Amino acid sequence: MNTGVTQLLSDPERKFNAKELAALAAYFRVVMFDTLHDRGTGHWGGAASSAELTTSLYFNRMNIKTDESKWEDRDRLILSKGHASMNLYTILANRGFFPTEELATFRKLDSRLQGHPCMKKLPGVDMSTGALGHGISIGLGMAMAAKVTNRSFWTYVLVGEGCLNEGQSWEAIMSAAKFKPKNFVLMVDYNKVQLDGTEEEIMPLGSLSDKLKSFGWNVCPHAYDGNNTEDVLSSYDWMDQDDVWPKAVIYDTIKGKGISFTEGKSSWHGAVIDDDSYAKGIVELKKDLQNKEAVL
Amino acid sequence: MSVAMREAFGKKLVELGATCPELVVLDADVSSSTKSGLFGNAYPDRFFNIGVAEANMVDIAAGMATAGLRPVVNAFSIFLALKATDQIRNTLCYNNLPVVIAGAYGGLSDSFDGASHQSICDIAIMRAMPNMQVIVPSDARQAELALEYALKQDGPVFIRLNRNPMPDLPASDEIGTVVCSEGSDVTIAANGITASFANEAAALLAKEGIKAEVLSVPMVKPLDVESIKKSVAKTGKLLCVEEHALMGGFSSAVSEAFMKQGICCIFDAIGIEDRFTESGPYEPLLAKYGISAENIANRAKALCK
Ligand SMILES: Cc1ncc(C[n+]2csc(CCOP(=O)(O)OP(=O)(O)O)c2C)c(N)n1
């Protein structure tokens, strides 16, 4: 680990600025790529895509307690795209929910780090996911519960556009506009690449923003760059500016972000990282990390 | 005739709502059928009509359960079992969340609506999910007891309810096997509302000098093997009766347990054979598919030959 990020992570509780978040996300990509290569199993493309989104939530925005992972008033994140588990695990470990050494057990027998996140096994996981399409409904239930119990925690649901192919997602989107719970935010990691191919090839969404608006959501006026932490932080300003619920933020992202030959490629959705690709890829990721640390 | 289970269940929800502020009730646009609407009238802030979207409803309930609420979801049993299977398994059961799944119109009880609405594979589906408990009450009182029991559990419970008023059985204080009549010739283990037909069958059999022991067994999972075992130790013969397909339901559960424990007995099972059912008045429909006092008596008699 380079000293820049080492120093940042010596106090993971504090609220980080955009440059620091960018360096952290770059560092987490290195850890993810390393671990996925070592383990020979897991999903790189979607994990790399959402690195800035999850990093910014956990290191800038969410109100959580790592020593009390079930704290009733905590903010919640549902990673509806559960195949990006390595992204969530890397964040949770570095945030302090469990030792970073445990990342090496990913997908091993008896590990708490299941292929897809399991809330019964791993502290910090707010909901088990893996089967796509559940997240918005579950998050809606949490946000509705906040109202019944007079609490004010936030619930964030992170989906990919593939997750939005599922009919249940739209049932949930429809019903969220009926119940309008406060502090409920849908975040779309819109990298436009699914498992088998591009969104255009697999299931074109048309205008996602218009669809969400027509379902009655308060949708961000323009898409944010989800791989740019400055932009992600400005999306938070938008979230905080009014009291009209539910809110949806669309983030343009790049699947496989950070490595030239994995970017935008569905073949890198869940491919095993071979030694050759690793050797080339890790150089690019480390270079990016150096650049981001240099401007801290 | 007692009140219908759904009526009793709806009223019990209202009663429990008064002392349990965490109790929330969800329905999928059938609350006037399931009677969960009674709760909605009494506690509008804790009642949520999710629309015709069973999968969405179950996951919303799951989210609520993680935040300290005690949800009861209501819909037609077949649609919960078939449209929300993934949600029930991967969200409720995997995370062992305390959500009560109240499956209305179980078995053939939505008789006139026909095969699309008749729920004869719900028990098989629910049984196959780890952490799930499965209860099939036999009368209104058992439905109330089942709800009280379910709300005390730490994980998911499926309660399969019936649409129509059925005769009351001997009362009990908690949900579990009820010995409706004692006998030494043959055991009739009846699941759900089939118990009342089994009781009538026992009366028919008595006229022919056959003493049948009738057990009403609502707990399918965990199965009350002990009670059935005890009775069979006496009679050596067992007839299981259920308002469900013969694959994977109550009789399957009993056979699995008996085989595993090496219990031998003369055995038969009445349930829906491997076919689709149809529209019709409830009791004649049940009878056509084998669930009648006469058929139960005949099949029990055959075991005694
Ligand atoms: C219900 C379900 N069907 C299929 C899959 C297999 N699967 C895993 S990821 C994926 C594509 C996901 O695409 P997207 O949501 O856009 O995720 P991202 O591109 O961000 O990785 C599919 C089809 C699944 N996990 N769940």
Please describe what this structure looks like.
The complex is a heterodimer of chains A (about 300) and B (about 300). By secondary structure, chain A is α/β, with parallel strands linked by helices. Chain A contains eleven helices and six strands. In chain A, helix 1 packs across helix 2, helix 2 (about 20-40) packs across helix 4 and helix 6 runs parallel beside helix 7 (about 165-180). With about 300 residues, chain B is α/β, with parallel strands linked by helices. Chain B has two domains: about 5-160, Thiamin diphosphate (ThDP)-binding fold, Pyr/PP domains (Rossmann fold); about 180-305, Rossmann fold. Chain B has helices at about 5-20, 30-35, 35-40, 55-65, 75-85, 85-95, 120-125, 140-150, 195-205, 225-235, 250-260, 280-290, 295-305; strands spanning about 25, 45-50, 70-75, 100-105, 135, 155-160, 180, 185-190, 210-215, 220, 235-245, 265-270. In chain B, the strands form two sheets. A seven-stranded mixed beta sheet of chain B has the order 2-1-3-4-6-5-10, sandwiched between helices. In chain B, strands 7-9-8-11-12 form a five-stranded mixed beta sheet, sandwiched between helices. In chain B, helix 9 (about 195-205) crosses helix 13 (about 295-305). The longest helix of chain B has 15 residues, at about 5-20. The two termini of chain B are about 35 Å apart. The structure holds thiamine diphosphate (TPP). The site of thiamine diphosphate has 19 residues of chain A, from helix 3.
